[in-house]
Write a structure and sequence with these properties.
- By secondary structure, this protein is an alpha/beta fold.
- It has one domain: Glutaredoxin (3-Layer(aba) Sandwich), CATH 3.40.30.10.
- Helix content is about 25%, strand content about 15%.
- A five-stranded mixed beta sheet has the order 3-2-1-4-5, with helices on both faces.
- A hairpin with a 6-residue loop joins β4 and β5.
- The two termini are about 25 Å apart.
- The mean pLDDT is about 90.
- This is Glutathione peroxidase.
- Keywords: Oxidoreductase, Peroxidase.
- One of its GO terms (molecular function) is peroxidase activity.
- Belongs to the glutathione peroxidase family.
Length: about 160
Amino acid sequence: MSVYDIPISQSFGTLEKYQGSFILVVNIADQCGFSPQLKDLEVLHSHPDNLCQVMAFPSDQFNQQSKDDAQMQSWCQVQKLSFFVSPVVGVNGECTHPLFAYLKKEAKGWFGQERIMWNYTKFLICPNEERIIRFAPMTKIDTIIDEIEKKMSGVP
């Protein structure tokens, strides 16, 4: 099984159409102190060189997501976010969305830990799943852009 086979949501389907692209998957929450990163995620998604598809997955597992699915979609429109925002999902435990179960196994966190420790943990899926890179919540989008540009130029 590959990341491109995992159903994302009923309306979205799978990631298969993005197989040759960079994809950044991030768990978000509207009341999190890291939520200003949404503007940077939009900059990455709208980059003139079309560097990366950004996909956000709201989660209330850290008690910082105050909006339900419909409210979240409206809030994202007000925030002028053009990237995909899924319905609210689980990122840990029994209710973990299959995409996060896969990503956590493939790109472990500190000390080999799979568990997501906080909102705005990011996973960069390189084209054709060459590599999956996990980034901590405080990682700046510029760092991720640098990583994408290095990969695009062939730097390991």
